[in-house]
Amino acid sequence: MNYTKNIHKLYIISFFFGLMPAYVIERLFWEARGMTIQMVVYAEIIYAATIVLLEVPTGILADKWGRKNMIVVCAFLGSLEFFLLIYSTEFWHFAVVVFLAGIATTAYSGSANAFLYDSLKMSGAEPHFEKELGRINAIDITSTIIAALSGSLLASRFDFELNYWLSFGGMTIAMLFSFTLVEPPNQHESDETTNIREYISTSFNVFRRNPAIFQVVLVGMVTGAAITFIDEFWQLYLDRIGIPMVFFGIFSAATFLLRIPGTLFAYLLKSTFSYRSLLITVSIVFSIGFACIALLKGSIGLIAILVVCLFAGITEPLTTGYLHHRIDSKMRATVDSFQSLGLNVIMILTSLGFGYFSTRYDLFGGFGFIAIFCTIFLLYLTMDKKELNK
User: Fold this and answer.
1) What's the whole-number mean pLDDT along residues 178-189?
2) How far apart are CA 51 and CA 63, in angstroms?
3) pTM of the model
């Protein structure tokens, strides 16, 4: 069986997952339906809380039931999510949508990375995991750029709902392709007697016995949580400083386009520089960048957003690759899910702070809180000098 075909299919699925112009104007759409910043933050908390509750159970399910099946579930729920969003008018409608989105995210997160790694392993190409993950991320980003350019144009000329219909169609195509994936033979097929407690305890032990893994993964959690606030609120930031909506698609495209070099060439960077120097550099950029976003409103703030996005692409291939090269295949999705679980715990905590300071000091106060959070983490990272082997 040639499992490299799975990689090519993941390319296609990732493309349609990213080709969703709905997200380009989502926050403005929510504002048009009467949602405040605080309500949007509440919706994000529901989303993150759903992931916290279901991330590990779906990871265990992926290891026992099959990673392909969970990818199919993700695509189906994604289609349903956008279909419901078309008719959403009240806060509780959006709450249901983000709840489904949270389930879909948990179904996909650990499953996709585990499926990718084991497909490469069956072909003897697992050392190329960071490279392939970077390519998949780059494809997802490219399709998101296409969606950004088309989404803002469509939103300015037609109803908001058209974007959601297009997103629904893209997720449906992704679902059809997910049915064609071939599950690599894995130890989960002969390990059905392993109970949930063993999965959880084994996953905890991976991080407890390997503090270097925990530190690397923690960097991914913190930077992943921080960049989410740019992804979710850049539209409102541009609106606050008086940028016309016609330029939103171009700016959105730029925020994603700048992540491509990092995600594509992270595997080369790790062979040239140490993990520690790379991760500290990214953390420094995040701390300074978010401070500029909060304090220097205008063109410098916009440049800071773009610089943060430029460095954001580096972290996921590095941190996820560092983890997967050091864990057992039979619990790969479960352990990976703990990474997403931690990210969303941090998301909940930072969302509370972001929402509080945004309410008191508008959006800029929220970004100021994220700057302080990133700076505190940077101090921890520089003081805790663990050896991070390649």
Assistant:
1) 75
2) 17
3) 0.80
Q: Residue 28 — very low, low, confident or very high, per pLDDT cuts 50/70/90?
A: very low
Pick the closest to residue 311 from 282, 287, 334, 288 (CA basis).
282
Q: Is the pLDDT at 354 greater than 60, yes or no? A: yes
Residue 167 lies in a domain: yes
Q: Over range 339-357, report the average pLDDT.
A: 87
Query: Could you tell me the two tokens for 282?
Result: 């990214």
In-domain check, residue 188: no
Dist CA 38 CA 129 (whole Å)? 39
Please name the residue ranges forming H helices in 179-298.
Answer: 196-209, 211-240, 248-257, 260-272, 275-295
The residue type at 199: Y
Residue 65: what pLDDT?
82
Q: What is the DSSP letter of 203?
A: H
Domain total in the chain: 1
Cβ neighbours, 10 Å, residue 103: 22
Give the end-to-end CA distance of the chain in Å, rounded to a whole number.
Answer: 31
pLDDT beyond 70 at 2: no
**Residue 186 scores a pLDDT above 50:** yes
Domain of 18, CATH number, reads 1.20.1250.20
Output phi, psi for 175, to 5 deg: -65, -40
Of 207, 212, 210, 205, nearest in space to 386 by CA: 212
Q: Which of 83-92, 228-237, 249-258 has the lowest mean pLDDT?
A: 83-92
Query: How far is residue 45's CA from residue 281's CA, in Å, rounded to a whole number?
Result: 29
**Is residue 390 assigned to a domain?**
no
Q: Per the structure block, which two tokens stand in for 269?
A: 């960077």
Full domain range(s) for residue 281: 4-180+193-383
The answer to whether residue 187 is domain-embedded is: no
Q: Residues 260, 127, 283, 11: is their CA dihedral positive or negative?
A: positive
